[in-house]
Predict the structure of Threonine synthase.
Amino acid sequence: MRYVSTRGGIEPVSFSQAVMMGLATDGGLLLPESFPQVDAATLQRWAKLSFQALAVEVMQPFVGEDISREELVALVEKSYASFSHPEVTPLVEPGNLRILELFHGPTAAFKDVALQFLGNLFELLLERSGQRLNILGATSGDTGSAAIYGVRGQERIDIFILHPKGRVSPIQERQMTTVLDANVHNIAITGTFDDGQRIVKELFNDLDFKQEYKLGAVNSINWARILAQVVYYFYAWGRVSGGDASQKVSYSVPTGNFGDIFAGYVALRMGLPVERLILATNRNDILSRFVNSGVYQTGEVHPTISPSMDIQISSNFERYLYFLMDQNPAKVRELMEQMGREGKLEVSPEKRAEVAALFHAAAVSEDETREQIRETYAETGYILDPHTAVGVHAARAFPGAICLATAHPAKFGAAVKEAIGVESEPPPSLQGLMEKETRCAVLAADAGVIRDFMKSTLAD
Ligand SMILES: Cc1ncc(COP(=O)(O)O)c(C=O)c1O
Ligand SMILES: N[C@@H](CCOP(=O)(O)O)C(=O)O
């Protein structure tokens, strides 16, 4: 399997090169040249597999020759041994809902599914090459701690994580800043997540710096992140369909950077029987506006009770755009350049109809989010986190849709308490965080400042 850039400016690379490259060197995002196809018999067989066995089947064709089956099995086993639920991503059915719980990993958010795997994958590839890696990532709250937990203490890696100061939940902040391993460097930037993501991309596009400092990516710009997330779409389908390929299912996905829902799109292109992808945003609605109008235009970032989705520039949108533009990299480059200049791009009415045939999009308000948490709790006793509640609310017109539960409600205690008067019992991994020692630098949201900080930290 070879990987190409959405902007067409690189020679095709292997899986391990794609993982180490992170952002493509032409500024685009990496994608496989083609998708392996899954037929009805395979779907039926996969529906009976454990999460781990399924992960090996789904990932194998994408990793190609780079990683042997034995190595892949070992990577998968190690990555999901850290999850507290034997099914890894169980499907539960409170009342008439279908909830895919993705928060049983070490940091209680769906990011662990991919970042436990990516941390172990980096370790394997770096051991082989004898190299070191300096990870640079941006977080709106969950990627940061999941990435830190994926690589903390690894000898060949230093990790620098930018989070927007004061714009993540107190627990999310503590999950990152209480990790005192010498290879972990937390930076609170005075800006938004979008500023952090812009800085990350700016520094990855500084090719001299990227090469000299061996930058690595943990955000969903890294293809391995998307790949690991494809697995649970197949897993959930197997649970509800029993393997009958004629049964199509809809998925509701709380969305910010378009990574998780793009993984669903990849599963669809591989042959998963998908009815609709329900794209749920909070007030920061660039993506739902796009689906409903064909115009992709940035706006101001508003703080919400689902802070991990407070994003107005969605990184993986470019990957979807590549397919929407019939895999024409020149067109993608033109549109992304226009986006860079004008903060806006628009697709034709035909393309908009194509988008609307697959995606249903809704922007869910703060009141609706709280109301959904309240209603689900009153009717079933089940506590939704605010991000998951956004997805459940958006799926109201789609009975039977699988709603992705992207975080444990205890990560957002204040919002949950405001909605239902009680907090959710925190899992052991979230207990005692507020009493622990912390370490974090506070810096301006400026690429030059972050570059200098990385250089001086690594020189010490
Ligand atoms: C809890 C939670 N839900 C949903 C999302 C949105 O996922 P994505 O950015 O992949 O669209 C995020 C982070 O982005 C998150 O942390
Ligand atoms: N919600 C994310 C934002 C970063 O997204 P990513 O999927 O590209 O890493 C977070 O929690 O940090």
